[in-house]
Amino acid sequence: MTEETTTKKSKNSSPEKEMSFWEHLEELRWHVVRSLIAIILLAIVAFINRHFIFDTVILAPKDSGFITNRALCKLAEIIAVKGLCIDNLNLSIINIKMSGQFLVHMWVSLVAGIIVAFPYILYEIWSFIRPALYNKERKYSRGAVFISSLLFILGVMFAYFLIVPLTINFLGTYQVSDFVQNNVSLNSYIGTVVSVSLGVGIVFELPIFVYFLTKVGIITPRFMKKNRKYMIVILLIISAIITPPDVISQILVVIPLIILYELSIGISARVYKKKRIEMAG
Q: What is the pTM assigned to this prediction?
């Protein structure tokens, strides 16, 4: 091996010593343990703050005084579309199981712990894979945890403040007959809020997935452009899965997903260009 090759390798290789399979497994175990501890601690905090989690956060979108509902009513006045205003939502939420409220309380606390701890979980994942990356790969991947966390939070907020209120209004007031009253179970309501919020938050990670898939050579910007129409169909299917069965929610979810897909094409093109420059050099 020549001196030039040795120097080049030392500049690009990871400074950490090579670990055995069992050492990697032990390292992964501690990353998982720390993530679980963070989730459990934050879940306990959420469990203790029951009134804030339920009254102020979870149950708020069903009230006409919710910020989104008030904004829609003001918009309805401006554009003279009365049907847009959500001010007559009298949704009755009931519990039909003896242990229902306690189990829901525990489940919501766990989900809240996962959402709040998500940036730390990403940090632990990054800390585990970081030693396996070359110096250039680490340089290009700086800010990955921050951007991933930001996209997830934006997705959750987008779902909570827009998709959830509209979904509750549509499904909560929909009637096949005036003789049938809507008394929604607590589990059904919580399931809708949680599944929509988490689902949209995860799907908002699309640009990150595209970045790494392009980095490892699985996809290219040309491939993404060529298969754009098929991807739009897939995004429609995904939006139908993560949202309740109403067209309005699906459209509201798929629009930002299409925007994120177009943004991902730009990200893929930039990564692909850098890879070609490195290979040429």
A: 0.78
